[in-house]
Amino acid sequence: MEGTVVAVVVVVGVLLLVLKAGMRVVNQVERGVVFRWGKALPSHRQPGITFLIPFADRMRKVNVQIVTMPVPTQEGITRDNVSVKVDAVVYFRVTDPVRAAIEVQDYVFAVGQVAQSSLRSIIGKSDLDDLLSDRERLHEGLALMIDSPAAGWGVHIDRVEIKDVQLPESLKRSMSRQAEAERERRARVITADGEFQAAQQLANASRIMSDTPEAMQLRLLQTVVEVAAEKNSTLVMPFPVELLRYFDRAAKKLDGDHGVPRQAEDRRPSAPAPAQEGEGRP
After folding, report:
1. Which PANTHER family did the record assign (predicted)?
2. Where are the beta strands (DSSP E) in the chain?
3. Would you give the distance in Å from CA 218 to the centre of its chain?
4. pLDDT in tens, 101-149
5. How many whole angstroms separate alpha carbon 114 and alpha carbon 88?
């Protein structure tokens, strides 16, 4: 009886040891790839507690989070023969843990090497203007170049971005002079356009004032008010021309009214002169 109890205890203890030896915990951000007798199983283990066969199974954990990997600065010559230095950053993640574990020894290092070679290639195929202004198209092309070999490793390239483009100092000075000349040209064009519009408005205003003398008088009064606001001791006001014209017309009218009676009086026959006493008598 005692031997049976001891045997049961021993069996239970061995089972607990086996269970403990074969129990593994997979984190939420990981997936487990199990190798049984050196051969990878087709399916990976999900997060949580999983059990392995002791001495037969071996599990390798693969991180499935997005990896941010900076690409070192690469120096190259663009298609228009400009020497530049460009660096970038790659965002990728593992989509197939089994292939990432068995197809490539170190998928992070492999993606980094492909990114460097692809970046040098994209520099040689692009112009300087594309590197500076059309980066979205370059990002898409660079992501396709890196994703092509990475797809066979169970890795997906989320995106690739060019961080900085370093230009030679001589080219920076040339571009600065060019930009300054362009700004001066735009400023002159804007100034000339403003003067042209102002001249047009002044011409329109002069035509309106010439057709409407009252508008000229109102403008004169407004100018007087503006000048009077200044701290001047003397204010010289021009005599209105319209008032002079009014006086001229009034004078001519008066001259015309007085001239008619004078002419009638001149045309009236004169009375005969009285005869003297001594004349006409015998």
Report:
1. AT06885P-RELATED, BAND 7 PROTEIN-RELATED
2. 23-26, 30-36, 39-40, 48-51, 57-63, 67-77, 83-94, 155-166
3. 48
4. 888 888 999 999 999 999 999 888 888 888 888 888 888 888 999 988 9
5. 12
Q: Over the Cα atoms of the chain, what is R_g?
A: 53
d(CA 238, CA 157): 83
- Output the six-digit token pair for 54: 């002791």
**Cα–Cα distances in angstroms (integers) from residue 31 to residues 19, 27, 257, in the given order:** 21, 8, 121
Q: What is the bridge-based pairing of β-strands 30-36 and 57-63?
A: antiparallel
3-state secondary structure 130-153: HHHHCHHHHHHHHHHHHHHHHHHH
Classify residue 237 as exposed, middle or buried by CB count within 10 Å of its CB (0-12, 13-18, 19+).
Answer: exposed
For residue 59, the cross-strand partners are 34
For residues 75 and 78, what is the distance between their CA atoms, to the nearest angstrom?
10
Q: What's the CATH superfamily of 67-171? A: Band 7 domain (3.30.479.30)
Neighbours of 241 (CB within 10 A): 11
Q: Crossing angle for the helix pair 169-211 and 213-228, nearest 10 degrees?
A: 120
Q: Which DSSP symbol is given to 217? A: H
Q: Where are the domains of the chain?
A: 17-63, 67-171
248-258: b (≥16 Cβ within 10 Å) or e? eeeeeeeeeee
Whether 171 contacts 89, CB under 8 Å: no
Tell me the pLDDT tens digit for each residue of 214-271: 666 677 677 766 766 666 656 666 666 666 676 777 778 777 766 555 554 555 554 4
Q: How many CB atoms lie within 10 A of CB 119?
A: 24
**Cα 163 to Cα 127: distance, rounded to the nearest angstrom:** 17
Query: Per the confidence metrics, is the pTM higher than 0.70?
Result: no
